[in-house]
C-alpha cells in the first residue's frame, strides 16, 4: 500500500510516520511506499524498507496536488495547516494554505477519480476550532460549527468539502476533529494554549512553567499517541458505517487545569507541582472562555475511536514516549 | 443610498426590486441608485426616479466583483445561485458560481475595505438546504449543517465565509436561510419540490396539478412576500444584536401537504381541491424525507423576522400579489 502524508514535518506528521515505520503496516495492510510532503523537506526516514519519496512542496501552488495524486496513493493523510494564530495574523496565507490547498488536493483527486476510477481514503485533520463560544458542556455531536477564527472557518469549510466529495464518490473521506494535543513534545511555544502542555512537560524535567489562567479552566485533551491512533483508526474504518456525515468530533479527556496539576502531583510529586508559577494573564483567560470544554463524541466512540480516561494516563504516555519511560 | 442586487433577474430579485421601487426606501433610507446584476440582463426598470445600472455579468468571472464594488454600494443583496438540481448535475458550474462567485464578491469587498474603510451591509440568501437528513422536528438554531447536496454545501461555505469576513470587519453580513418559497409564481417547473406550489397555484386558476407525495409530508414554507420581507429586515437589522453567528434560520410555516390542501379548500372550495391529481412518485417521496420539516427559528423571531402563521394566509398573499386580489 502507498501512503501519502501531507504535513509530514509537523509534530503529528512525524509521530504518525514513526508509528507507520514501526508497524510496517496499517491494520494489517503492509506499507511498501511512503510519500512525505511538507513545505519544508521532511527528515529522511530510517528503518523503513519500502520506497520513500519526500517532497518540499506547498499544496496551494498550482500543480503540486496533481503531482502528488499522479502516483495514486491509496491513502492520503492531510495534516498540513497554517496554525490558528498565524492564520489570524495573515489572512491571505491562511486562506491560501488552509482553504485553497485543501480544495486543490480534493480537486486533483476528483479529476483522477473521473479519469480512472481512483478512490483513495482521505484522512483530514480537522479541529475543535470549528466550534465557537458560547458552547455547551459537553458539546453534542449535532452542535453547529460557528468558528471564531479564520483557522476554524477554513477547517469547517474543509469538512464540508470532504463530505460533499465523499458523497459524490471521488474519495472516501473521514474528517477528525482533534482535541488539543497534550502533552505536546518540544519546547514551550507562544501559542496561547501552550500552557496546557507547558505546566506538565517542563516540571517533569525539573523546569519552571508559567500558568496564566485559573485552575478552574476546563478544556479537551488527547495525548499525541492517541491522536495518531485516531488517524490510523480513521484510515481503516468502514466508511459505510459512518454514513454521509463524514466529520467526527474525537473522544478526549475533559479536565480542568486543577485536575491536570493534581495528576502531575500523583505522578511526579509536590516538587514538580512547585515548579508551576502562577502569572495570571487576563487576555489568555478570556480566550480560554471561548475554547471547547469537552465533547460527547458519541459517534466516534461507537465507531471505535479511543482516548485516555485520566490525566495520569496522559502524563504516563508522555513519560513513555518522550522521556524513555522514567522520570 | 446605493443598493446593489446580485441575482436581480431571479424570482426573488424581481420581487425585491418591485418592493424597493414601490417603497423608494429601505427602513426610511431613500434609495437613489440601484445596480442590478445577473447573468442575463435584468429587465429595464419602470417607476424608479434614481440612477439605475443594469449589468449582465457573472460574479465568478475575474474582475466582475471588483467592477461591482468599485461604485461602493452601501448595501449588497447577494441572491445569485445555480439552483440545487443544476449544481448537482454540473459539479464545476455549481462550485464556480455558488462558491467562487461568492468568495470573489467577499474578497472584492475585503480589498476595498482595506483600501478606504468601505464596509457595506451584505445580505446573503442562504437556504435550508444547508441541513441534511436525518433532521429533528423542529430543527433548533444550534443544529449542525450537514448538507446532502453540493448546492447546500456551497451555501454552507458561503455562510462560514460571511461570518468570518464580518468578524474581521470587512463588511456587515447577514445570512438568511430561506424556507421553500410557496406559492412560487409562474409556470410549473421540473424542480422536485415544485409540487408544493403547483397544487395550490394551478387549482386557484382552474388548472389541474399533480401531487406526487402522500398528504403526510411535512415541509417548511414562506410566501414570496415574506421572503422579500426577510431580505429587507436583514438589510437594516442592528448587527450588534446578532453577534458573531451571522447566519439565521428564518421563520416560516411548517405544514403537511394535507394542511395545504385543507387551506386551499377553505379559500377556493372543493372544486379547486378536485383539480389535484394524485400520482405517487416514489423517488420524490424519498427525497422529501431528507427535507427540513420545520425550524424553531428562535433567534430570527427574537430579531423581528416574521412570516405567515397559516396556509390560508399564504394563499391569500398569492391572490393579492399575483391574481389581482380576487379569484
Structure description:
2 copies of one chain form a homodimer. Chain A has 327 residues and is α/β, with parallel strands linked by helices. Chain A folds into 2 domains: 2-179 and 224-249, 3-Layer(aba) Sandwich (Rossmann fold), CATH 3.40.50.720; 192-220 and 253-293 and 308-322, UDP-galactose 4-epimerase, domain 1, CATH 3.90.25. Helices cover 43% and strands 18% of the residues of chain A. Chain A contains 12 helices and 14 strands. The first copy, chain A, has helices spanning 11-23, 64-70, 84-89, 91-116, 150-167, 195-204, 224-236, 239-242, 257-273, 282-289, 298-302, 311-322, and strands at 2-6, 25-26, 29-30, 33-38, 51-56, 75-78, 121-127, 172-178, 180-181, 209-211, 218-222, 247-249, 253-256, 276-278. In chain A, the strands form 4 sheets. Chain A has a 7-stranded parallel β-sheet, sandwiched between helices. A 3-stranded mixed β-sheet of chain A has the order 9-11-13. Chain A has a two-stranded antiparallel ribbon with strand order 2-3. In chain A, strand 2 (25-26) and strand 3 form a beta hairpin. In chain A, helix 9 crosses helix 12 (311-322). The longest helix of chain A has 26 residues, at 91-116. The two termini of chain A are 39 Å apart. The relative contact order of chain A is 0.13. The mean pLDDT of chain A is 96. The A-B interface holds A 91, 110, 132, 141-148, 150, 153, 156-157, 160-161, 163-164, 167-168, 244-245 and B 91, 110, 132, 141-148, 150, 153, 156-157, 160-161, 163-164, 167-168, 244-245.
